[in-house]
Amino acid sequence: EVQLVESGGGLVQAGGSLRLSCATSGFTFDDYAIGWFRQAPGKEREGVSCIGTSDGSTFYADSVKGRFTISSDNHKNTVYLQMNSLKSEDTAIYYCAAEWPRPNECSRFYFGSWGQGTQVTVSS
Q: Do the beta carbons of residue 120 and residue 91 sit within 8 Å?
């Protein structure tokens, strides 16, 4: 059974940083794509960043390029999202998701296994 557990969310001031973690189990980590998605109140869930754990290829949404960094630790079966220079518009519930084989897009429509989410709140 695929399991994904997010952690690291919280309340931070604008300009601050947080690091989210997605601990995974139940699948062959090296073969999957792992993505971070977020959903703000009243908005659709959007893809923030995705990584292919076999080759380390990454994708970033334009809104987070240069501020967020996704990485994976294949020994710990964990994916991280380092978020710097946070803005109030980054406030959302952040989810990690997994899919195999790696989807062509970092889109919620292509990921089938999801964590429960972690709240990120950025105060201005």
A: yes
Is-contact 97 37, C-beta < 8 A? yes
Q: Where are the beta strands (DSSP E) in the chain?
A: 3-7, 10-13, 18-25, 33-39, 46-52, 58-60, 68-73, 78-83, 92-99, 113-114, 118-123
Amino acid 30: pLDDT: 81
Q: What CA–CA distance (Å, rounded) separates 1 from 122? A: 33
Tokens of 66: 């240069």
> Mean pLDDT by 10-residue block, N- to C-terminus, for the chain (124 residues)?
96 98 90 95 97 93 98 95 98 97 92 97 96
